[in-house]
Design goal:
By secondary structure, the chain is mostly helical. Helix content is 45%, strand content 4%.
């Protein structure tokens, strides 16, 4: 039944033939407990995301970048945090061998990186930096009647892990920005992203480049 506020809103918008209807809904959970997991595979974009959310300084970030470079040069895929930590161990073990080609590898910095990754894992980071990766198309679905699927990210426990929460939100916004076409102003919105997480993102975004999405509301 329509409330007074509903009727007032319809009047303001000029909706004279408005009717409620049911729509399909999918509840997502990055931690994979209350719905399908939303792994973002942040490692495929290089060291920027783990660098920021492991709270690394410039020296430690340089060693992390070096580690990604070594893995790339040797055809090694870093699919999750376990792979990254193993690669860091290899960098420490072969520091003398790598020094001439890649620069100094500080074991102290590697220790700091490992501690940062452990902290990230403690917040459930292995669920985000892993496989199978969530694809943007997974969020852009319709049902058999052509109704767009409403995707809801369950924040219950995710809000208790702010670094992981902001990492996922920034990844999703970045994917929206990079993959959705530039179409200008539409008569009808094709997709709408509703979020009330700006303080969380600003507080933990760090050095990540944040870009506004055309689909934000």
């Amino acid at each position: 039944m329509a409330t007074t506020q509903d009727r007032r809103t319809r009047q303001q918008l000029g909706l004279t033939d408005f009717e409620y209807d049911s729509v399909p809904v999918v509840f997502w959970d990055v931690l994979g407990e209350a719905g399908p997991p939303g792994a973002g595979d942040g490692l495929r974009h290089g060291p920027l995301a783990p660098r920021t959310h492991a709270d690394l300084n410039d020296t430690q970030a340089g060693v992390l970048t070096l580690t990604f470079k070594v893995a790339d040069d040797n055809g090694l895929l870093l699919l999750d945090l376990k792979d990254l930590r193993a690669m860091l161990e290899q960098s420490a073990t072969n520091a003398a061998q790598f020094r001439a080609r890649y620069g100094n590898v500080s074991t102290t910095s590697i220790g700091a990186i490992q501690r940062g990754l452990l902290a990230l894992e403690g917040q459930g980071g292995e669920r985000f930096f892993g496989e199978p990766a969530l694809e943007l198309d997974d969020l852009l679905q319709t049902d058999g009647d052509g109704h767009g699927v409403v995707n809801i990210l369950g924040p219950d426990k995710l809000m208790q892990t702010p670094k992981l929460y902001s990492t996922f939100l920034l990844w999703m916004l970045s994917e929206l920005f990079e993959q959705l076409p530039e179409v200008g102003d539409l008569d009808n919105e094709a997709r709408v992203l509703l979020r009330r997480s700006a303080p969380v993102v600003r507080r933990h975004a760090g050095a990540l480049e944040t870009r506004s999405s055309r689909w934000s509301a």
